[in-house]
Amino acid sequence: xxTEPDVIIIGGGLAGLTSALHLLKQGLQVTLxxxxxxxxxxxxxxxxxxxxxxxxxxxxxxxxxxxxxxIQYLNVTTQHGRSxxxxxxxxxxxxxxxxxxxxxxxxxxxxxxKILNAIVSRINFNDDTFTVFVQEQALEAxxxxxxxxxxxxxxxxxxxxxxxxxxxxxxxKAHYSGDFPDDQISLHSFSAGYCGISKVEENKxxxxxxxxxxxxxxxxxxxxxxxxxxSKNIHLKYFFEQNVLLFDKPITISQISxxxxxxxxxxxxxxxDTAGLIHPLCGNGMAMAIQSARIASELIADYFIGKITSRKxxxxxxxxxxxxxxxxxxxxxxxxxxxxxxxFGANVLIKIAATFPAILKWIIKQTHGSxxxxx
Length: 375
Ligand SMILES: Cc1cc2nc3c(=O)[nH]c(=O)nc-3n(C[C@H](O)[C@H](O)[C@H](O)COP(=O)(O)OP(=O)(O)OC[C@H]3O[C@@H](n4cnc5c(N)ncnc54)[C@H](O)[C@@H]3O)c2cc1C
Prior knowledge:
Elements: E1 7-10, H1 14-25, E2 30-34, E3 47-49, H2 53-58, E4 69-77, E5 83-94, H3 97-110, E6 114-117, E7 120-126, E8 129-134, E9 137-141, E10 143-146, H4 153-157, E11 169-177, E12 184-190, E13 193-199, E14 205-212, H5 213-216, H6 222-228, H7 234-242, E15 244-245, E16 251-256, E17 264-265, E18 268-270, H8 285-304, H9 311-341, H10 343-355, H11 357-366
Parallel strand pairs: 1-2, 1-10, 2-6, 4-12, 10-18
Antiparallel strand pairs: 3-5, 4-5, 7-8, 8-9, 11-14, 11-15, 11-16, 12-13, 13-14, 17-18
Helix pairs in contact: 1-3, 1-8, 8-9, 9-10, 10-11
Flavin-adenine dinucleotide binds next to helix 1, strand 2, strand 3, helix 4 and strand 14.
């Protein structure tokens, strides 16, 4: 009996869990390795674009079981309180990562996937086979999917370009109780970043902001930062005054890099944030993580049924499809982030959007995919 898995997936976030579900559905043997346990909160805006719904349905994943919020409208404000509302072309779902990742994890587990709760410390590729080192074990597999997120010990090990540069971006997230429209996501600019607010399950409100470390460090703590910097935007001031923090304290991450990353490295197919992170203000990183998992998994499944006959072909096809699907989104994400960074740019954008809402809708479409049916 064969004991080695066909595929080892490193990282059990959205990309890793989705690819595990896909590959298991195709009858492949999969080992998933995740260093943390479930459930746990993650720094994320928790707005999931509806573009993933047909694929989730193909995977037999029904998010409605989690009672998410259904979001249809976007409200954008500038630092000085200018505001515009637009109906989202596709819309999305508000669901916490605490619930969503755990939901997918339960499904992966129920399908008999071997799951290791451990940290991968090394990966070797020799004689067309991977050896993945986890604690005292050395596991072998034909393919490895790198789903280890924005920044990991493995990026250092693989000496990936982006890891050598320090990033100036950090993010803060917390849940609140209070009053907020069920069907709206708000994106508020402030002098040093952007803050997204929307409802998730159980009427909770998720607030998550991206900011630069230099400005943040000038203040003693998060409460002061929110009071003296974020609250200069009147909409955020009102939010902090009216709503009650549900966490003991907000959670934070730093060193968030938007640099280009390699899609394939040492024959490892990178998926999700490991392949590249879109600017969070596009609200599309989760969908990209899920869609990249689909692309990589489809190609691996094709390899095992003999439709793709060499590793080289598979890698070339993966890079090509990744660029076709996400290259343009990343570019638009960067441009949008640049424009909104400056009060002048944000004002111009909002003025244009208020007069011609179709333009804002067009911009949103450039950073999102479509809800294509899966064959
Ligand atoms: C501030 C902010 C707001 C955002 N808001 C949104 C939003 O509203 N909507 C949206 O769609 N996207 C948003 N995103 C993007 C989204 O969060 C990510 O794109 C998404 O989480 C990517 O999923 P992933 O599976 O690639 O990575 P992750 O979810 O980070 O999973 C990676 C996993 O790998 C594990 N791991 C790492 N190293 C190892 C190792 N050596 N061994 C074993 N396990 C390992 C980690 O523990 C982790 O669980 C936001 C991002 C940021 C920074």
